[in-house]
Write a structure and sequence with these properties.
The protein is about 30% helix and about 20% strand. The protein has 19 helices and 21 strands. Helix 8 (about 205-220) crosses helix 9 (about 235-245). The longest helix is centred in the last third of the chain and has 20 residues, at about 550-565. The two termini are about 50 Å apart. InterPro entries: G6P_DH, G6P_DH_AS, G6P_DH_C, G6P_DH_NAD-bd. GO terms for molecular function: glucose-6-phosphate dehydrogenase activity; NADP binding. This is Glucose-6-phosphate 1-dehydrogenase. Keywords: Carbohydrate metabolism, Glucose metabolism, NADP, Oxidoreductase.
């Protein structure tokens, strides 16, 4: 596939052509050298009218022949099973691409530098846009990862001028990257590419006006458009409908990034997916989970599949249990109203932690292609044993005074319903019923207002059979087991805990760490997860985005237990703000002969 532009931030080049199935080859026609490009998928998606069914469009084949001088040869239009084109419905006859349209398609290859990417942040006045999306886009620009021609538009209901948007965005941009050149100068250049358009999220007319502005900045180039929906889920569909009908690219790709939550349960998630697919195809939808963009999460497959010492150990034969731990040292300050509608299980466990678990436990994919990786993740999710209520512990933080400071309870938040039973902590024991992981408990826990902020994966290995040094460890053999700790945040690191002899004449054993601390090993700043995922969306790389069947499998696992918790009005176990969480979580782990790794003597 021809590359439209390359970047300095990644070693590979990539194409902005909408179809991933296009191919090219050289041959000869009438004695002239030319290039044959298969635009079947591209034309089917972008030229044929939207009301033609996907099945019909998929069977429409079209080849473009590019002559050496850039002229476009008149193509034959073979249709599956030799069906005469005139037999297709009349509405299709009016949409047969003209010679001019073929030239426009051809120019995509001939004038590769004359394409542009327009990035529209829908919900630009919100916190996510200000704190994460615009700073990530600036970091990509600073690193030279954005194409030569790009434009950024903010879209929201708030009335704002271009200058006011730039002023708002400038307050959140930081020069955290090493100063190879003036950051202030780069910031000014970036802000000049940022514009604003005010409009309603359900107004085709407002999006049509946005489309007009985008075209003015695209300047007749091949336009590729990325829309980031940083808006509440109840208005996703309205925004997608207006984007699809009034602001999609005429020639080039259109992609939409959708933020979680993707529904509240299986039914609402399926309804959302069905509604989105009325206006978009699956390969246009990028469901973002920013935890998949974190450096240590992406390093999971590298650690496992490129190191011989780990892959043979990655199974029930050597691994005793796996723990995925997420904790925050603050409550729901500022998000109580939103959080109370979802709770910690929907907000963290069903997406962030479950996605990490699927990456950790999947079989070796056929390749690093996005679909191959996502296929293996889906297999893991579908192999998981249905979650039972007795394997779940829920908690909610209460007020606590420490050091003369009183910390509020969850229900003290004015935006939270009075007497709310929404859990701010949850722990669960999950099992994967397949040959690799049969019987291995995967313990996951997530909570707010805990004693420390951390996200980590802890892999506890089995005891050494017939260990000669058991007497040196006393009765607590768990101290003798090896443990691999992958610290996702903060202070990214990989620790391997091993047993070691303390220097001296006696035989005294010690547990030591083989440590890879990223800050010490690598001088380069670790990119924010949103930088990686935004760049992937621009490139069309879907590996770290969630496919609809992944989503279905994830909700199928958690929906029954969520329904049971709510129908039975299960009262959460209360724990003090700043503590280690409910005692019930330790009893849950002990039931499977496991001790949480984050409460040991060594942290």
């Amino acid at each position: 596939m021809a590359a439209l532009y390359s970047t300095t931030c990644r070693s590979h080049s990539y194409s902005l052509l909408p179809s991933s199935s296009s191919s090219s080859s050289s041959s000869s026609i009438h004695g002239q050298n030319h290039q044959r490009l298969n635009f079947s998928s591209y034309i089917a998606k972008r030229v044929l009218p939207a009301k033609v069914s996907f099945h019909s469009r998929r069977n429409y084949h079209l080849n473009v022949v590019l002559m050496q001088d850039g002229a476009v040869a008149t193509p034959a239009i073979p249709v599956e099973n030799e069906t005469p084109f005139k037999k297709l419905k009349g509405e299709l006859l009016t949409s047969v691409p003209s010679t001019q349209e073929f030239k426009e398609v051809a120019s995509f290859y001939v004038n590769k530098d004359e394409s542009t990417v327009s990035i529209t942040v829908v919900g630009a006045s919100g916190d996510l846009a200000k704190k994460k999306i615009f700073p990530a886009l600036f970091a990509l620009y600073y690193e030279g990862c954005l194409p030569k021609h790009f434009t950024i538009f903010g879209y929201a209901r708030s009335k704002m001028t271009d200058a006011e948007l730039r002023n708002m965005v400038s307050k959140t941009l930081t020069c955290r990257i090493d100063k190879r050149e003036s950051c202030d100068e780069k910031m000014d250049q970036f802000l000049k590419r940022c514009f604003y358009h005010s409009g309603q999220y359900d107004s085709p007319e407002n999006f049509a006006k946005l489309d007009k502005k985008l075209k003015e900045h695209e300047g007749g180039r091949v336009s590729n458009r990325l829309f980031y929906l940083s808006i509440p889920p109840n208005i996703f569909i309205d925004a997608v409908k207006c984007t699809s009908s009034s602001a999609s690219s005429g020639i080039g790709w259109t992609r939409v990034i959708v933020e979680k939550p993707f529904g509240r349960d299986s039914d609402s998630s399926a309804a959302l997916t069905k509604a989105l697919k009325q206006y978009l195809e699956e390969d246009q939808i990028f469901r973002i989970d920013h935890y998949l963009g974190k450096e240590l999460v992406e390093n999971l497959s590298v650690l496992r599949f490129s190191n011989l010492i780990f892959e043979p150990l990655w199974s029930r034969r050597y691994i005793r249990n796996v723990q995925l731990i997420f904790s925050e040292d603050f409550g729901t300050e500022g998000r109580g109203g939103y959080f109370d509608n979802y709770g910690i299980i929907r907000d963290i466990m069903q997406n962030h932690l479950l996605q990490i678990l699927a990456l950790f436990a999947m079989e070796t994919p056929v390749s690093l292609d996005a679909e191959d990786i996502r296929n293996e993740k889906v297999k893991v999710l579908r192999s998981m044993r249905p979650l039972q209520l007795e394997d779940v512990v829920v908690g909610q933080y209460k007020s606590h005074t420490k050091g003369g400071v009183t910390y509020p309870a969850y229900i003290d938040d004015s935006t939270v319903r009075k007497g709310s039973l929404t859990p701010t902590f949850a722990a669960a024991a999950l099992f994967i019923d397949n040959a690799r992981w049969d019987g291995v408990p995967f313990l996951i826990k997530a909570g707010k207002a805990l004693h420390k902020k951390r996200t980590e994966i802890r892999v506890q290995f089995r005891h050494v059979p017939g260990n000669l040094y058991n007497q040196d460890f006393g009765n607590d053999l768990d101290l003798a087991t090896n443990e691999l700790v992958i610290r996702v945040q903060p202070d990214e690191a990989i620790d391997l805990k091993i047993n070691n002899k303390v220097p001296g004449l006696g035989m005294r054993l010690d547990r030591s760490n083989l440590n890879l601390l990223y800050a010490a090993r690598y001088s380069k700043e670790i990119p924010d997860a949103y930088e990686r995922l935004l760049l992937d969306a621009i490139e069309g790389e879907r590996r770290l985005f969630i496919r609809s069947d992944e989503l279905d499998a994830a909700w199928a696992l958690f929906t029954p237990v969520l329904k049971e918790l709510e129908e039975k009005n299960v009262i959460p176990e209360y724990y003090p703000y700043g503590s280690r969480g409910p005692v019930g979580a330790h009893y849950l782990a002990a039931r499977y002969n496991v001790r949480w790794g984050d409460i040991g003597i060594e942290q």
